[in-house]
Design goal:
By secondary structure, the protein is mostly helical. It is 57% helix and 6% strand. The strands form four sheets. It has a five-stranded mixed sheet. Helix 10 crosses helix 21 and helix 13 runs antiparallel to helix 14. The protein starts with a helix and ends in a 14-residue tail after the last strand.
Length: 685
């Protein structure tokens, strides 16, 4: 852990030195280019008196037949000539030449009857644009390097530690090979979902990456793509609010590798990315939303609802509330032309037409799966999760301390930005949207199949909060915003170092668990049971906190062995059932057993007669895999009873990837080849 911290601090020092030298180089190049351009334009600039206005400059340059001062007719002719592109600056007068420095007069030369003078580079001062351009480029480079540093721990381990990620790999594998002739075993246990569900967008990506490489690398490619897309989406959305405030997109970097990604909620994370892109697009074009742009907006909204339902619901709510608040603010500000009720109605009509297809798809989902109003968490628990930023953490309570620079700087900036928001229409609209989401989060207890809506709203509130802070960015508040940017950078680096250490420790256990794959025959059925609770110590250490990276590792083994994984709760129609594939009802193990009660968490496990699955269904369970299994877990009375009863039907054996001082991690048990009549059971095709 200490070594990783030292390496990251060294990388930060090198990065700082690099960006400083890079900025000096870019500023020097920009200064040279500006000097060359200024030298080429010096005659035209010097022929015009510095104190003259635009009209007097044109009059003095064009001259007049009636006198030195010219007249209105001459000025109008000069203006028309200038607009037509035919106006040219005449040669400088002798009096102007006498006022020039000797070095400038010496460098003057005649070209085609025109006099051209070039100023030495020493007399041309660098402009603000060159310095700002160099600073912007160096900030962009630093932002990209920071994103790459955040992605680095993913590629330092063999397996990305996500809870539901292996399930998504299994779904993508079965879905992409479902119609192939050698997948009859998968077709015997899984059926395709005939409905278009709002959780399908991630599987074509996973199938593509799995076709190019092995499944573990495919998942890491998907996670890296999410990191890049979320950074770019945040940059695009913040620039849509305030182009000068784009460095504030750093505030979203700690969200990339947070709770939701480590839980394996890949469709949900992709919906957050899509929300930022589509909402940013609407902010950019809301006043010029032509029909082609409206069609593109409608297509993007429809794509978003196929990714995840919550992303589309928040998008529709945010756009509807923002358009109303902006309309009210424009009327009170007495803008010219003053917006009318017809303008608001016409805008909402076009938005309604764009949202009609995704609304129909969302309504179909709600009618089939139903939405329940049941409070799964108290208001106190929700407030604690909100103010402690639970969505940032996964493996340790130490992450709360590491995120303090971001949270404190962001809170201070929000307090400073609150008063200015009342005078800014867009800032007031975003603040109203966030306030409404907080009220929904606290007092609207909606859930679908036991999944609470409240837990899904927090990252959207955080993303909208970053957009709101960007709306108050000005030159006067730049120093305050730099403080928040510095806090985000510091928290990102600290959290990255902590994640690198956690990934390495979890990967050590994961490779040991995956060693069971060599003891499992190809094209077999597998049911893992996890007796270990995520907040319990493993090997003497607490290696995780809010996520369980071992819960669905059996799905990885099933993908490697072309087998069937029978512990995937999201594929059971009695629990979820809104994914591209599902268990066939006659072989769904969750219809027979409460497998969730078998895996205790903080309670003792309950016994389930798993062996009866072979007699009560057309399917079979070839292997039962206990893991993680340590001596402390094996000594629990409930676990000993379950293992003893299963030993009547299964042969127990241990497997380790290499000798260890600690207890073995995985204990697979192979089914004894006999059925109720004592004959060897028929192998599944």
């Amino acid at each position: 852990m200490l070594v990783l911290y030292i390496l990251l601090l060294g990388a930060l020092a090198l990065f700082t030195a690099y960006t400083r030298n890079f900025q000096r180089t870019i500023v020097g190049i920009g200064t040279g280019l500006d000097s060359a351009l200024a030298a080429a334009a010096a005659p035209r600039l010097q022929s015009i008196p510095p104190g003259a206005s635009d009209r007097s400059r044109q009059a003095s340059a064009c001259g007049s037949k009636n006198g030195a001062d010219g007249g209105i007719d001459t000025l109008q002719r000069c203006e028309r000539a200038r607009r037509g592109g035919r106006w040219r600056s005449p040669p400088a007068r002798t009096s102007d030449r006498n006022r020039e420095p000797a070095a400038a007069r010496k460098s003057a030369r005649s070209e085609g009857g025109r006099t051209r003078r070039e100023l030495p580079l020493s007399q041309v001062t660098p402009t603000r644009s060159s310095v700002a351009g160099g600073r912007s480029l160096s900030l962009t480079t630093g932002f990209g390097v920071l994103v790459l540093l955040a992605m680095l721990p993913v590629w330092l381990v063999e397996y990305f530690p996500s809870q539901d990620g292996p399930d998504h790999l299994l779904i993508a594998d079965v879905w992409s090979h479902y119609d192939e002739p050698n997948t009859d075993l998968s077709r015997a246990y899984f059926a395709l979902n005939p409905h278009v569900e709002p959780n399908i967008a991630v599987y074509p990506l996973l199938a593509l990456f799995s076709h190019l490489t092995e499944s573990g690398t495919a998942e890491k490619l998907l996670v890296s793509l999410f990191a890049i897309l979320l950074a770019v989406a945040g940059l695009y959305a913040i620039a849509s609010v305030n182009r000068q405030a784009w460095p504030l997109s750093v505030l979203l970097l700690p969200m990339i590798f947070g709770y939701y990604l480590h839980m394996g909620f890949y469709n949900f994370v992709l919906s957050l990315i899509g929300f930022l892109f589509v909402f940013g697009y609407w902010l950019r074009h809301r006043q010029r939303l032509t029909w082609p742009r409206l069609l593109l907006f409608a297509a993007a909204s429809l794509a978003l609802v196929t990714v995840h339902l919550v992303g589309f619901v928040v998008l529709a709510y945010a756009i509807g509330v923002s358009s109303l608040v902006l309309w009210i603010h424009a009327r009170r500000a007495a803008e010219h032309p003053r917006p009318s009720w017809q303008d608001l109605g016409w805008e909402w009509l076009r938005l309604g037409l764009a949202f009609l297809p995704p609304i129909l798809l969302a309504a179909s989902f709600v009618l089939r799966h139903q939405v329940h109003s049941e409070a799964l968490l108290s208001e106190r628990s929700l407030l604690i999760q909100l103010f402690t930023a639970k969505f940032l953490f996964s493996f340790s309570r130490l992450e709360r301390i590491l995120a303090l620079p971001l949270l404190l700087a962001g809170a201070a900036l929000a307090i400073w930005n609150l008063r200015a928001s009342l005078r800014n229409g867009l800032a007031l609209a975003l603040l109203t949207v966030i306030g409404g989401l907080v009220l929904i989060y606290l007092f609207v207890p909606l859930n679908t199949r036991g999944v609470p809506l409240a837990n899904r709203l927090v990252p959207f509130m955080a993303a909208l909060g970053a957009l709101w802070l960007a709306s108050g960015y000005t030159a006067a508040t730049a120093a305050r915003h730099r403080l928040a940017i510095l806090g985000a950078v510091l928290s990102t680096l600290l959290l990255t170092a902590h994640r690198a250490a956690a990934y390495r420790e979890i990967d050590d256990y994961t490779r040991e668990y995956m060693s069971a794959a060599s003891h499992i025959e190809p094209r077999s059925t597998l049911l893992p049971i996890n007796f270990w609770g995520r907040r319990h110590p493993l090997g003497g250490d607490h290696i995780t906190w809010l996520t369980d990276p071992f819960l669905h590792l059996g799905a990885r083994i099933a993908v490697q062995t072309d087998g069937v994984y029978l512990r995937c709760s999201i594929l059971s129609s009695v629990i979820y059932g809104y994914f591209p594939i599902a268990y066939r009802p006659e072989v769904d193990p969750f219809r027979l057993f409460d497998l969730l009660a078998l895996e205790p968490g903080d309670k003792p496990p309950k016994f389930a007669d798993i062996a009866s699955y072979n007699d009560r269904t057309p399917g079979r369970i070839d292997y039962v895999l206990f893991g993680p299994m340590t001596r402390d877990i094996a000594a629990q009375p409930a676990v000993r009873v379950i293992v003893s009863r299963l030993s009547r039907h299964y042969d127990l054996f241990l497997c380790l990837s290499r000798p260890r001082a600690r207890a073995p991690l995985s204990t697979p048990g192979r089914r004894v080849p006999r059925n109720r009549k004592g004959a060897a059971p028929r192998r599944a095709p």
